[in-house]
Amino acid sequence: MPRTGVRGNGGEPEYPGMGEHLRSARHAHGLNLRELAARLGVSPSLISQVETGKAKPSVSTLYAIASELGVSLDELLFNDPDRVVRGGRRSRAPRLAIPAANATAPSPIQRADDRKSIRLASGVVWERLTTASNPAIDFLAVTYEVGGASSPEHEFQRHGGLEWGYVVSGRLGVTIGFDDHVLGPGDAIAIDSSIPHRLYTVGDEPVHGIWFVLGRRPVEDLTETVQRATGR
To answer: Taking a C-beta distance cutoff of 8 angstroms, is the pair 199, 189 a contact?
Structure first.
């Protein structure tokens, strides 16, 4: 890629609003720190540190948080000011409000030097490739730094939906279930996200790629979102 995709010095999350969005989503579900931590299998202190910007979650932990709270990663990381989390204790995911029909439409162009980005734990950087938050998809430029991984070795992530990835540069290791693959520049992959998987850098060169995730929300939520947006 022509740019590294990394902003700032990595000392703090590049988008500190993540902690505020996590706290809002947690409160919308009526969960305290201990309750959410117990559901995720992590310590309450980790959730607290992520909410206050003192710690960065790994990709796998972030997926687990988003899945448990019923929000997309895009909503959690890059929530736009005119979208707010609604809902409370209920089995279905809370939705973000869709702007009114007369609201100003976001620009269709996302300039390379004006992306929202965040650095996660384990040497992973995500940049949003859209100008506005979309509750149905995650469309990202990803960087796996040397030694970077989506989760610690022998640990995996899984979530609903499907994802597609394209490697621009570097070599990306992908473990899906019991199968190991190595992707190089120009290679692409499609993953059933419900299968345990892990992504990691192979070699001494960072990996740059494009990632698209669809359908992490329940299908009925995704369908209703599209119908409300299109007026059908």
So the answer is: no
Distance CA 212, CA 115 (A): 16
- 59-106 pLDDT, tens digit each: 878 878 888 887 767 667 765 544 444 444 333 333 443 444 555 778
CA distances from 19 to 3, 47, 56, 119, 174 (A): 27, 9, 10, 13, 29
pLDDT in tens, 208-231: 999 998 876 543 344 443 344 444
Q: CB atoms < 10 A from the CB of 143, how many?
A: 26
Distance linking the first and last C-alpha atoms of the chain = 39
Report residue 199: phi and psi, to 5°: -120, 140
CB 125 within 8 A of CB 9: no
In order of start, what are the domains of the chain with their CATH numbers?
Answer: 17-78 (1.10.260.40), 115-214 (2.60.120.10)
Under 8 Å between Cβ of 202 and 184: no
Q: CB under 8 Å to 178, separation ≥6 — which residues?
A: none
pTM: 0.71
